[in-house]
Amino acid sequence: MLKKGFISLICLLLCMLLLMPAVFAEEKKTQSVDLTPNAQSAVLMDADTGTVIVDKNKDAKLPPASITKIMTMLLIMEAIDQGKIKMDEKVRASEYAASMGGSQIFLEPGEEMTVQEMLKGIAMASGNDASVAMAEKIAGSEENFVHMMNERAQQLGMKNTHFSNSNGLPVDNHYTTASDIAIMSRELLKHEEITKFTGVYQDYLRKDTANPFWLVNTNKLVRFYSGADGLKTGYTSEAKFCLAATAKRENLRVIAVVLGEPNTKTRNAEVSKLFDFAFAQYSNYPLFKSGDSLGSFTINKGEVSTVPLVAKQNYSILMKKGEATQNIRHELQVDPNLKAPVALGQSIGKIVVYNGDAVLAEYPLESPVAVNKASWWKLFKRTTSNLFHTDS
């Protein structure tokens, strides 16, 4: 009797072992539905936190075609922020810039346009000529500008990227990944005004001249997908059809990147699927908006003793829809022993976000200004005023 029972138990265990792979295979299948079956590589990222929601071959090194221009636009926006160029400043097209083939705004050698017009031409019409003209304006030559592009890529942690030109025309040793494209797209979106160019469907250049040029955005999603307002398309026979797109609904902005798609229809459909998935499944719990006051921090023996701290970006937490938020809290943790001198961009602490007692996220904080060490006379006056409660 015991022997029969033992044999029955062994048979039952064998049946379970045979069934288990099928069960796990089915579970894996339902958990990893490929939203981009035709893409060689893809990434879906939350723009605020940088959280990757979906990825497929995200680190595969591939030619990016005109998606290259995201880095070109980033360096243009940073040059504007740094006061190196202005939006209304004129840019002259060299003979070399005007000679670019492919997508272009048909600049004539010696023709002048403003930085703003050049940006329109790059963002909407993917102007190869405008990209080179702006590269020469900022760096003196396209070669110098490409050096800046690669340097900035390294700073952003784009470990699998190398640029060889400013526009993405086919050239040796020019590659990136879906993951790295999402990183530089996120950085570009910190310049919120860029979507005034990337999100417009149609516009004109040379509008008030005898030779107006009609611009139609190469990214059709800005017209046909609700919330889409950028960023950049790309195509060459080698790269196939590529797109780095962004869309925002309510508090959630996402970035979708697809590389190596077979045609524009499939490319747009698969990016739309990524967007649909993000907006159906996720929401953002906002902490601070860009420009919000975060308080201030103290610097010992500095020319100024306190420095106001303002959010330089949106701070939020990516959450599954329906998740409880009542126990989410955050703390501003600033180094209490900061001493002058303090450099611009120096680490001063972090924002720590909790759900109850569990840490959800940490965001580094940097000094928004440089603070030199105060003179002994200033320190003496400050000490005296504090003793007698007078204003310094």
Automatic annotation (TrEMBL):
<dbReference type="InterPro" id="IPR001967">
    <property type="entry name" value="Peptidase_S11_N"/>
</dbReference>
<dbReference type="GO" id="GO:0009252">
    <property type="term" value="P:peptidoglycan biosynthetic process"/>
</dbReference>
<keyword id="KW-0378">Hydrolase</keyword>
<dbReference type="GO" id="GO:0006508">
    <property type="term" value="P:proteolysis"/>
</dbReference>
<keyword id="KW-0133">Cell shape</keyword>
<comment type="function">
    <text>Removes C-terminal D-alanyl residues from sugar-peptide cell wall precursors.</text>
</comment>
<keyword id="KW-0573">Peptidoglycan synthesis</keyword>
<keyword id="KW-0732">Signal</keyword>
<dbReference type="GO" id="GO:0008360">
    <property type="term" value="P:regulation of cell shape"/>
</dbReference>
<dbReference type="InterPro" id="IPR018044">
    <property type="entry name" value="Peptidase_S11"/>
</dbReference>
<dbReference type="InterPro" id="IPR012907">
    <property type="entry name" value="Peptidase_S11_C"/>
</dbReference>
<feature type="active site" description="Acyl-ester intermediate">
    <location>
        <position position="66"/>
    </location>
</feature>
<feature type="active site">
    <location>
        <position position="126"/>
    </location>
</feature>
<comment type="pathway">
    <text>Cell wall biogenesis; peptidoglycan biosynthesis.</text>
</comment>
<keyword id="KW-0121">Carboxypeptidase</keyword>
<comment type="similarity">
    <text>Belongs to the peptidase S11 family.</text>
</comment>
<dbReference type="GO" id="GO:0071555">
    <property type="term" value="P:cell wall organization"/>
</dbReference>
<protein>
    <recommendedName>
        <fullName>serine-type D-Ala-D-Ala carboxypeptidase</fullName>
        <ecNumber>3.4.16.4</ecNumber>
    </recommendedName>
</protein>
<dbReference type="Pfam" id="PF07943">
    <property type="entry name" value="PBP5_C"/>
</dbReference>
<dbReference type="Pfam" id="PF00768">
    <property type="entry name" value="Peptidase_S11"/>
</dbReference>
<dbReference type="InterPro" id="IPR012338">
    <property type="entry name" value="Beta-lactam/transpept-like"/>
</dbReference>
<dbReference type="GO" id="GO:0009002">
    <property type="term" value="F:serine-type D-Ala-D-Ala carboxypeptidase activity"/>
</dbReference>
<keyword id="KW-0645">Protease</keyword>
<feature type="active site" description="Proton acceptor">
    <location>
        <position position="69"/>
    </location>
</feature>
<feature type="signal peptide">
    <location>
        <begin position="1"/>
        <end position="25"/>
    </location>
</feature>
<dbReference type="InterPro" id="IPR015956">
    <property type="entry name" value="Peniciliin-bd_prot_C_sf"/>
</dbReference>
<keyword id="KW-0961">Cell wall biogenesis/degradation</keyword>
<dbReference type="InterPro" id="IPR037167">
    <property type="entry name" value="Peptidase_S11_C_sf"/>
</dbReference>
<feature type="domain" description="Peptidase S11 D-Ala-D-Ala carboxypeptidase A C-terminal">
    <location>
        <begin position="282"/>
        <end position="373"/>
    </location>
</feature>
<feature type="binding site">
    <location>
        <position position="232"/>
    </location>
    <ligand>
        <name>substrate</name>
    </ligand>
</feature>
